[in-house]
């Protein structure tokens, strides 16, 4: 019904838009337009201005989203039928990729009043069920794309959940202003004081997450914490996350591997005494820390966060970690040192044997330069050797066992971000069941089995889980 009502608006706006272009440029351009060559004399910046005007106009006369239980898509992506993509309609997919791929056009007039922010994040007449673990917490380091960030809060919103943000000191003033507006508006959103800058080399990333841990630890509730980066997208609903973390039963989910050579500062001392790692000095022996390399993203039980904040002092360790890649060896180092007895820890025995165990907190597709792009990255777009997910990945997003996808970029493809948010909305608020969470996968993770059994006298570690490692291509 609203579709039909929409159509005239769009047509009027298109005409308005074209008139605007004609008004701006010479009549030759007008001719070119009718020959199908789109405004060749208009600079990219000018085009953006035109689009923004059109979109802003659309937004203002938009009644589509009022008073509805359904997910409200932006004008840019209003035409995208996520369900059709979910049905595996490959022909339809072509109308959303290539030249038709839809980037997010930032809204410079975003309404930042508290009621507007709340309206966007919390659906009207939403009813929440209590979570088994009393909530999930998310610690995310952010530097750009406020509307994308707000969308991630929306997709994982639950009154029992907590969202902590560390904002890059080098991010734009506008971005920082928007993040502060978000914090002011919702009691379960924290934005840390903006004190340092983060970058892809890993500077200050651990510190940011650690500061979020300290902030979150003071809040009651929540059972698990997820450590995230700016463009990670959670792909499980709040209730699915709650279920999965319940199945982990206290085990952490952290990727661990042998230390990547060359990342350690050789001139620093790495024994516990020099690091003054434990607050209880008598635990600080001459034992030299075994470092493990992993990822920034991880899921930690509340007990770990309390342990990291109260039992150890990581200030020397964090200062001493080398410049490059330090962000990827903080949590994994603690997780793999079984002697530290961090709650929910694992062991170094599997990676010593060159066996890596399944990890669910983050999924990314590595596409090093020697690999063929098209067969290793559905969108064909790779940045820093990582595939940028596009709408082509939506089917996999809906079923793949991991909890988050890294990365989706709003400036590249907003459809996949919008469709993922719609999917989670449907699962959270409309009870949509489009896929069955496989409890067995999570219960039988090697780290979960280890956590459950390692104190038993007859326990023998087996680094291979009883399910087949999942293959992404089977999910596409
Ligand atoms: C912002 O949103 C609020 C609540 O939805 C509304 O009352 C207000 O008029 C809006 N402000 C502007 C400038 O659109
Ligand atoms: C959740 O909170 C309730 C009420 O505070 C408490 O009784 C319960 O033990 C909590 N559950 C967990 C898993 O922490
Ligand atoms: C912030 O950005 C400026 C300019 O791009 C750069 O010179 C500076 O080093 C950055 N600061 C940090 C802490 O990265
Ligand atoms: C400190 O550690 C030692 C050795 O592990 C232990 O015996 C002692 O009880 C601990 N002290 C405190 C205050 O926890
Ligand atoms: C590691 O490898 C050794 C030698 O192959 C084997 O004996 C041991 O059981 C393995 N450990 C684990 C935890 O798989
Ligand atoms: C979400 O639910 C609405 C209403 O039932 C439906 O139209 C839409 O296709 C669903 N989207 C997805 C991604 O399942
Ligand atoms: C480890 O577990 C896997 C899967 O359950 C099984 O196939 C394998 O035989 C086990 N290995 C050992 C040494 O028990």
TrEMBL record:
Q: PANTHER family, per this entry?
A: CORE-2_I-BRANCHING ENZYME-RELATED, PROTEIN CBG11221
Asked if Ligase is a keyword of the record, the answer is no
- GO MF, one annotated term: glycosyltransferase activity
Localization annotation: Membrane
Tell me if Glycoprotein is a UniProt keyword of this record: yes
- The domain of life is Eukaryota
TM segment ranges: 7-25
- GO cellular component term, pick one: membrane
Topological category with respect to the lipid bilayer: Single-pass type II membrane protein
Q: What is this protein called?
A: Core-2/I-Branching enzyme
Cross-referenced Pfam families: Branch
Q: Which UniProt keywords apply?
A: Glycoprotein, Glycosyltransferase, Membrane, Transferase, Transmembrane, Transmembrane helix
List the residue ranges forming a coiled coil, or say none.
none
InterPro entries in the record, alphabetically? Glyco_trans_14
């Amino acid at each position: 019904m609203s579709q039909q009502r929409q159509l005239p608006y769009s047509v009027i706006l298109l005409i308005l838009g074209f008139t605007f272009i004609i008004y701006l440029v010479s009549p030759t351009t007008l001719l070119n337009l009718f020959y199908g060559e789109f405004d060749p004399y208009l600079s990219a910046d000018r085009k953006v201005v035109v689009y923004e005007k059109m979109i802003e106009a659309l937004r203002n006369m938009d009644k589509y989203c009022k008073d509805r239980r359904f997910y409200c898509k932006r004008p840019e992506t209003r035409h995208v039928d996520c369900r059709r993509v979910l049905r595996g309609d490959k022909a339809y997919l072509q109308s959303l990729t290539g030249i038709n791929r839809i980037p997010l056009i930032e809204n410079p007039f975003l309404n930042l009043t508290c009621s507007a922010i709340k309206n966007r994040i919390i659906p009207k007449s939403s009813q929440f069920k209590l979570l088994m673990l009393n909530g999930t917490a998310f610690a995310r380091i952010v530097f750009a794309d406020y509307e994308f960030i707000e969308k991630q809060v929306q997709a994982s919103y639950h009154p029992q959940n907590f969202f902590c943000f560390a904002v890059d000191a080098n991010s734009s003033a506008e971005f920082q202003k928007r993040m502060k507006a978000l914090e002011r508006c919702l009691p379960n959103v924290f934005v840390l004081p903006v004190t340092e800058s983060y970058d892809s080399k890993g500077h200050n990333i651990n510190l940011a997450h650690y500061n979020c841990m300290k902030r979150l630890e003071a809040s009651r509730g929540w059972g698990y914490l997820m450590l995230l980066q700016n463009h990670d997208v959670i792909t499980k609903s709040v209730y699915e996350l709650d279920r999965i973390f319940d199945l982990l039963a206290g085990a952490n989910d952290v990727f661990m591997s042998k230390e990547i050579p060359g990342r350690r500062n050789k001139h620093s001392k790495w024994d516990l005494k020099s690091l003054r790692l434990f607050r209880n000095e008598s635990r600080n022996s001459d034992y030299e820390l075994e470092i493990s390399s992993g990822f920034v993203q991880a899921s930690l039980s509340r007990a770990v966060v309390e342990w990291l904040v109260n039992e150890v002092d990581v200030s020397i360790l964090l200062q001493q970690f080398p410049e490059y890649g330090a962000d990827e060896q903080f949590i994994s180092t603690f997780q793999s040192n079984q002697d530290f007895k961090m709650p929910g820890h694992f062991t170094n025995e599997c990676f010593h044997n060159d066996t890596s165990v399944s990890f669910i907190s983050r999924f990314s597709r590595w596409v090093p330069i020697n690999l063929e792009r098209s067969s290793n990255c559905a969108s064909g777009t790779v940045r820093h050797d990582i595939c940028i997910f596009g709408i082509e990945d939506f089917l996999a997003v809906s079923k793949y066992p991991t909890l988050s996808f890294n990365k989706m970029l709003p400036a590249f493809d907003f459809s996949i971000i919008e469709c993922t948010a719609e999917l989670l909305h449907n699962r959270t608020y409309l009870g949509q069941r489009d896929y069955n969470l496989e409890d067995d996968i999570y219960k039988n993770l090697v780290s979960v089995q280890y956590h459950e059994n390692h104190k038993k006298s007859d326990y023998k570690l087996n680094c291979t889980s009883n399910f087949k490692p999942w293959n992404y291509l089977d999910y596409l």
